[in-house]
Write a structure and sequence with these properties.
Structural class: alpha+beta
CATH topology of the largest domain: FAD/NAD(P)-binding domain
Number of helices: 15
Bound molecules: adenosine-5'-diphosphate
Number of domains: 3
Number of strands: 20
CATH class of the largest domain: Alpha Beta
Length: 594
């Protein structure tokens, strides 16, 4: 009996092994040239009949927290549809494209005939029934301002519904570098930094050419530190005083860094909070179409389109509009632009695809007032292929310079964002390199503000690295003698240089250590549309004005959809502060309104 059993067992084992070898796995890594994100490694496992058994994304070097959804959804769809030609995830085009390319390369490299697996399967979505929901507060948009508003409304006792048109939370906020300008006036650190809430106010006001509303600016700077404390109370982790830096165009070292890369930490925190409460219903893939008003003209809900195309009516006591900006809407930005005069498709954007100005259109129908819509912020820091902020090797302002195709510095790299961008447009092909040394990346394995290491960026062809400046110049394709002379001259103004303490010929006054510690790094950048600073007019309680200067009752707005805070030029590091401060105010106002 024992013998028979062991023979059966052996046979069973052999069969399992035979079945296992019938599945074959194919792996490929595609580099960042596809989609402009870091390298992605994909494994596709085929059954012996050629159908897909499994797909895994083994490695994705895009910013963690941003690429999670496509890394989960695309492999699942490929298995379910037995096709490697599945729909991309909206708002995550670059990662999606890299995963699709990875799956294709894996099979092709393995000599598999992919004709059948490239067939696009028709996805039939059954339309769900129309529905009507009730809430105290409905929030439109699950970006930084929207989720801060939703959580604060809940903390003030409200039952909240958040609608988000994209398949994920985060909006544009999650793509930001993560820096938040904030001053704790009472702290010794502020004194040490020669900083104060008043100085933050003055720089914000003058940095926007005195166009911002002083009351709104005061609200921003006075509540920014509390905002950080509030995120901490929700469990968010921040780096300490040592990591406080001057963000590009931030004009002062007052930017605090979250512990997680980019702005992913906010959403990690916010979504964990939302998961734990029954009082916030977060509806993804749900697009607000219209804000409802009652007979008195007060906001009383919204109409939205659900994931399957069904109509969702949400009745609520109050509405918070937190739909972000319109940098991705070329027609709208061209119609409003009062600064640049050429914001057509040729100028890329740092923004996510959902930044199309839906809030502007919905608010216009209610007769809302808009301010400074022509003020559109560009950055000189876009990826040359995609316009995105990621891939930027810089850390803070004091350790890096900008160099044009001729290998020369051309402007004040510690200046305002509009000035830096104008300077860049005047260079050959509006193209420049950010150059720095190993003070920033002692080993090359340290990360930038987006969770990417310098070595990864070099590997992916998004940056170059060399032991000497001559070699660096060669890799950049700029004249070596110019680069060497430029950096020699720059170093004179740096700490320990013979002109330390003086401003240079471009008016730059902020200098860190010399750029003399190889290996050296350089990464290319171009102008990119970043932030629409104009928007709907609000008061300090985030109430929305109509064109007659009256308040539209029960309607609130926060974040990039609002205008009049940043004036003609927003300080780097003030946008995330804006989402937290005004998001919280809007949430509280909306929860407490009658
Ligand atoms: P902010 O920084 O002001 O919070 P974000 O861009 O981070 O702006 O977030 C705005 C969010 O609003 C994005 O996630 C965007 O997809 C979402 N959104 C925009 N229009 C709509 C709409 N019509 N319905 C639902 N969500 C929307």
């Amino acid at each position: 009996m024992k013998k028979i059993l062991s023979v059966i067992l052996a046979l069973a084992l052999m069969m399992t092994a035979a079945m296992a070898v019938a599945d074959t796995s194919y792996t490929a890594t595609v580099d960042s040239q596809i989609g402009g994100v870091g390298a992605v490694t994909v494994t596709v496992t085929l059954k012996d009949d050629g159908s897909i058994a499994a797909v895994t994304v083994d490695e994705c070097k895009d910013t963690p927290g941003i690429c999670d959804l496509p890394c989960e959804k695309l492999p699942a769809d490929m298995v379910a549809m037995n096709s490697i030609n599945v729909d991309i995830v909206a708002g995550a085009t670059m990662t999606s494209d890299a995963i699709l390319a990875g799956a294709k390369a894996a099979l092709e490299n393995g000599g598999v005939d992919i004709t059948a697996l490239m067939e696009k399967k028709e996805v039939v979505v059954e339309k769900a029934a129309d529905e009507t929901l009730e809430a105290d507060v409905v929030v439109i948009g699950a970006g930084g301002a929207g989720l801060a508003a939703a959580i604060t409304a809940e903390q003030n006792g409200a039952k909240v519904i958040v609608v988000e048109k994209m398949p994920k939370v985060g909006g544009n906020t999650i793509l930001a570098g993560g820096a938040v300008n904030a001053v704790d006036d009472r702290s010794e650190f502020a004194i040490k930094q020669n900083d104060s809430v008043q100085w933050h106010f003055e720089q914000t006001y003058s940095g926007g050419d005195y166009q911002g509303d002083p009351e709104l600016i005061l609200t921003l700077v006075q509540n920014a530190w509390d905002g950080i404390e509030w995120t901490k109370s929700l469990g968010m982790e921040w780096l300490g005083e040592d990591a406080v830096f001057t963000v590009s165009g931030g004009l002062w070292p007052r930017a605090w860094k979250p512990a997680m890369p980019a702005a992913t930490g906010f959403f990690d925190t916010y979504t964990k909070y939302i998961e734990k409460t029954d009082a916030i219903n977060l509806m993804l893939n749900t697009k607000a179409e219209k804000i409802l008003t009652n007979a008195d003209g007060a906001a009383c809900g919204i109409i939205a389109t659900g994931e399957t195309g069904n109509t969702i009516t949400i009745n609520a006591k109050s509405v918070v509009v937190a739909t972000g900006g319109f940098s991705k809407n070329v027609a709208l930005r061209q119609a409003y632009d009062a600064i640049w005069g050429m914001l057509d498709e040729s100028v890329m954007s740092t923004n996510h695809e959902g930044a199309t100005g839906d809030g502007v259109k919905m608010l216009q129908l209610l007769g809302a007032d808009f301010v400074q819509m022509g003020n559109i912020q560009l950055l000189p820091l876009g990826d040359p292929k995609t316009g995105s902020l990621s891939g930027n090797i810089e850390h803070g302002v004091d350790t890096r310079i900008f160099v044009n195709k001729e290998g020369l510095r051309y402007g004040n790299e510690a200046g305002r964002r509009d000035d830096m961008t104008r300077d860049l447009f005047a260079q050959t092909d509006a193209y420049m390199w950010i150059v720095m040394d190993s003070d920033t990346y002692p080993t090359g394995d340290e990360v930038n503000n987006f969770g990417e290491t310098a070595n990864q960026l070099v590997e992916a062809g998004r940056a170059v690295k060399a032991d000497t400046l001559e070699e660096l110049a060669e890799k950049m394709g700029v004249p070596a003698e110019n680069l060497v002379a430029t950096i020699d001259e720059y170093n004179k103004y740096c700490i320990g240089g013979e002109l330390e303490g003086q401003a240079d010929q471009f008016g730059r006054a902020l200098f860190g250590p010399k750029i003399d510690n190889g290996p050296f790094y350089a990464g290319p950048r171009v102008p990119t549309v970043h932030h629409t600073m104009g928007g709907v007019r609000i008061d300090t309680q985030c109430r929305v004005y109509n064109e007659n200067g009256e308040i539209i009752e029960n309607l609130y707005a926060a974040g990039e959809v609002t205008g009049g805070i940043h004036g003609s030029n927003r300080l780097g590091g003030n946008a995330l502060a804006d989402t937290i401060v005004f998001g919280r105010i809007a949430g509280e106002s909306a929860a407490l309104c009658k």
